[in-house]
Design a protein that fits this description.
Layout: H1 2-18, H2 23-35, H3 37-57, H4 76-85, H5 87-90, E1 97-101, E2 104-108, E3 115-118, E4 124-127, E5 132-137, E6 142-154, E7 163-167, E8 170-174, E9 178-183, E10 187-194, E11 196-201, E12 207-210, E13 213-218, E14 224-227, H6 230-236, E15 243-250, H7 251-259, E16 265-268, H8 271-274, E17 277-283, H9 287-298, E18 300-304, E19 308-313
Parallel strand pairs: 6-7, 16-19
Antiparallel strand pairs: 1-2, 2-5, 3-4, 4-6, 5-6, 6-9, 7-8, 8-11, 9-10, 10-13, 11-12, 13-14, 15-17, 18-19
Helix pairs in contact: 1-3, 1-4, 2-3
Amino acid sequence: MRNEINAAAAEWVAREDAGTLSPAEAAQLAAWLAADSRHLGAYGRMRAIMSSCDRLYRGEHVPGPASAPAVRPRARVWAWRAAALAASLALVTVAALRFLDDGADTYTTRIGEISRVALEDGSLVTLNTDSRVRVRFDEGHRDIELLRGEAMFDVAKDRQRPFAVTAGGTRVVAVGTSFSVRRSPARVNVLVREGVVKVDEAEQPVLRLQAGDKASLPERRAPVVARVDAVEVHRELAWRDGMIAFSGETLEEVAREFARYNTLRIRIADPDVAGLEVVGMFSATDPIGFSRAAAQSMHLDMALGENEIVLRPRPKKKAAAGSH
C-alpha cells in the first residue's frame, strides 16, 4: 500500500512540475489528498525531493549521504516516474539519512544539519543537529523513538492512532499538536507549541502539558514545569531556521551550545570570561562570526586555531614610562 501511495504522489508532483494543472486535475489532486492522511505525507516527501533536484540543477549544494546527479528539466518527468517505482527504497528528504531498521524508518542528521521529514500520516518531523529518530507506524499506533538529539513534531490529527514519542524512560503522547523533545544524557526537555500532550515517566505522575508549557525531566528527580510566553517559544525553536538564541546564558554555556552544531569548538581561556552573559541570536554554524562579535562587544581577544577558537581577556595596557 505504501508503495502505491508513494507512486501516486510522485506522479502528481511530476504532473505539477510539467505544467499548471487543469481545474479538473487540481480538483482530483485535492480529493486524493483529502482521502487519506498518508497521501499528504507522501506528497510532502515528493515535493521535498523535487526541491532537492531543483537545487542540484541550479548548482546549489544539498547535504546528504551522497551527491545525487542533477536532473535536467526535459528528463525530470521520466526521472520522477522511475523514482515512483522505487519510492519505498530510494526517496529520502533533503539533509537526512534514512535507514531501514527492522521494519522501522530511521532518520539521522549530521552535526550542523537540520532536516524536515514528512511522514506517511501527514505529520512533519524537524530534526536538529546530530539527531536520530526511529519511526514505526502500524494500523493502531504511531511510535517515534528519539534515540539522540532534538526534534520538533508537527502532528497530523488521527484520534484512532495516538502519536507517541519515546526518549529514554520518557514517553510523550499527542493526537494532533506541535511540540519539541530534546534528549541529553541527564534529562529530557519537552516544549509544547500548540495543543496538549501527556508526558508519562517511570515512577512520576503523568503530566498534562499545554501550549506554552516547558518541562524539564531529569533522571531520578521530580520534573519541573514552567510557563513561557510566545517570544520564549520562538527563541527556543530558533534552531529550526539554523539559528541559536540566547537571553542571558553564560559564555561557557554558549560555547557548549555551539559545540552541538560545529566541530570547531569555542574555548574560554579564563573563568571570569566564562561567566559573562550573552544576549542575541546567531547563526548556529558560524562560531567564528559569533566569537568575533563577542570579542568586540566584551573587549576580549580572539585567537583562531586549527580546531578551536580561544577567547580570553585583552591584556591590560602598560602605563606609559614616566607617568605617575
